[in-house]
Amino acid sequence: MNASEHNLSHIPPEDELMEHIPTVETIRTVAEAMKQLGDPSRLRIFWLLCHCEECVINIAAATDMTSPAVSHHLRLLKGAGLITSRRDGKEMYYRAADTEMVLKLHHTIEDIARISCPH
Questions:
Q1: How far is CA 18 from CA 6, 10, 22, 31, 81, in A?
Q2: Considering the entire predicted model, what is its pTM?
Q3: Measured in whole angstroms, how far is the alpha carbon of residue 81 from the centre of its chain?
Q4: DSSP 7-55
């Protein structure tokens, strides 16, 4: 759904509106995701991980951050359900979670920033 599909000047009847109001849990999940993406460093890391799977050292190099700082941001992104991790030997690799919310957030970021997806 895009912005043109919403008529913001039209207010539906209250009973119709209440049928579609999101649950508290849904709103909490979305709010937490948006809170985490409100930080520019986490937003950059999230965008990067939407396109590839990387370890902390490579993420730090790509974002010009220290490994401890990247690790901190990764913990918060993972806690919000935005990224996942897997272990390969001693190394942890991170990527964007495979969820509808993550896909929509990824596309929204690219639409707003007018970023072209590399693939």
A1: 17, 15, 9, 20, 27
A2: 0.80
A3: 8
A4: -TT----HHHHHHHPPPHHHHHHHHHHHHHHTSHHHHHHHHHHTT--EE
At 25, phi and psi to the nearest 5? -65, -40
Q: Which domains does the chain have, with CATH numbers?
A: 28-113 (1.10.10.10)
**Rg of the chain (C-alpha set):** 17
Q: In one letter, which amino acid is 74?
A: L
119 residues of the chain, pLDDT tens digit each: 444 455 556 677 777 777 878 899 989 988 999 999 999 999 999 999 999 999 999 999 999 999 999 999 999 999 999 999 999 999 999 999 999 999 999 999 988 887 766 65
Which of 67, 60, 93 shows the shortest CA–CA distance to 78?
93
Instruction: Record the tokens describing residue 35, joined without a space.
Output: 């809170």
